[in-house]
Every structure is written in C-alpha cells, then in structure tokens.
Amino acid sequence: MSQFNAFEEALDFSFWKNLCETRGERLFFRRGEYFVHAGEVLQRVGWIVSGGFKHSLTDNAGHTKAVGFVFEDAVVANYLSALAGEKMPTDIIALEDSEVMVVPSSYICEILDTRPEVKVKFLQVLFGQAYDHVLNIYRFTPEQRYAHLLERFPRILDLVPVGDLASYLNISRRQLHRFRNQKTK
Predict the structure, then answer these.
(1) Degrees (nearest 5) of the Cα angle 125, 120, 94?
(2) How many folded domains does the chain comprise?
(3) Full residue range of the structural domain in which residue 102 is found
C-alpha cells in the first residue's frame, strides 16, 4: 500500500519497523480507542501491523477536527512529543480495529541520538512535509486538494469516515459529497 504521508516514502523507516518487531509489545486497539490523549506526553511509539489511526484535535469552538491519518505498515507517533517530551497537541484514535507493535519512545530517541545524520534527515523531511501542507492550503482550492488526495492515496475513501475526511480537508461534509458526486459522473 502506498503511504498516506509523503515523509514515510522519503525516509527509510526499516529501523523503526525492525525495532518494534524485535523489541516491541503487540497491542490491539478497538475502533475509537485512544493510542494517546491530547495533553499527555507520548510514552510509546509504534508500527501499525493492521488498521489505522487519526490524529484529531478540538478547536476553540469545541469541534473535533481530523488533522492527519496513518495506516498499515507505517509509524504511529507524534515526533515532537516522542523526541522532545512535549505534550501531545492531538489525540491519536483508532479508525478501525488495529494491531500495533509498540516500544517506549526512548528507544527511538536512543537510535536517533546515536545516528545524527538520520535524525537530521528525519527532521528535514518532516518539516518539509509540514511546510508543503501549509502552502498547499493556499496554493490549491479545496476541490484540487481533494483530487490530489485521491491521486496520492486512492483507498482513503474506504478507510476514513466522510466527516473525518471533510474536516481533514477543512471543508463541510456537503462540499465533500459534492466533490465525490462530481468525480463519479
């Protein structure tokens, strides 16, 4: 499966996967179960064996917004919290029943601290994707962002509820339905 997040294709995460598979604990999360709550410091990171998760936050008006997704054969983490001990800005919640191999965040920190070239590349790619995401909000219309999302990750409609997808694109459900209907014509 192609990766949802571009940085996962730009970096070799085999060290992360290997660490989780060899030293990790297998955990199961039911749909709607939290991997971590906003406001907590991330104590563990993982490799998704099956399933998927959303990163979500509650805005100032009290609305829950999906701000990111991760799926099978990918990392589940928040890098600022895991690497710098910052409090989580988002919840990480299972989108479906999911299996994850988890290790303490400190294991990843140790690897990155002993391999500074990997850590620098890791941070550069992560920052680049975040910056591109912000620029794309201004560069493209919501319909263009939706089309790009479908090009990059066609299975998104099968994996993510409509409401979460609409909030991720920062549009209404009605707008998303209109875009979907136009694509099927």
Answers:
(1) 50
(2) 1
(3) 6-118
Residue 23's pLDDT is 95
147, part of any domain: no
Which amino acid is residue 161, in one-letter code? Answer: P
- Residue written as tokens 């919290």? 81
Residue among 11, 24, 2, 8 at smallest CA distance from 108: 24
Whether residue 83 is contained in a domain is answered as yes
Residue 105 placed within a domain: yes
pTM of the predicted model as reported, rounded to 2 decimal places? 0.88
Tokens of 164: 């979460």
- Encode pLDDT of 80-131 as tens digits: 888 888 999 999 999 999 999 999 999 988 988 898 888 888 888 888 888 9
- Kindly state whether residue 1 falls inside one of the protein's structural domains: no
DSSP string, 78-141: -HHHHHH-PBPSSEEEESSSEEEEEEEHHHHHHHHHH-HHHHHHHHHHHHHHHHHHHHHHHHS-
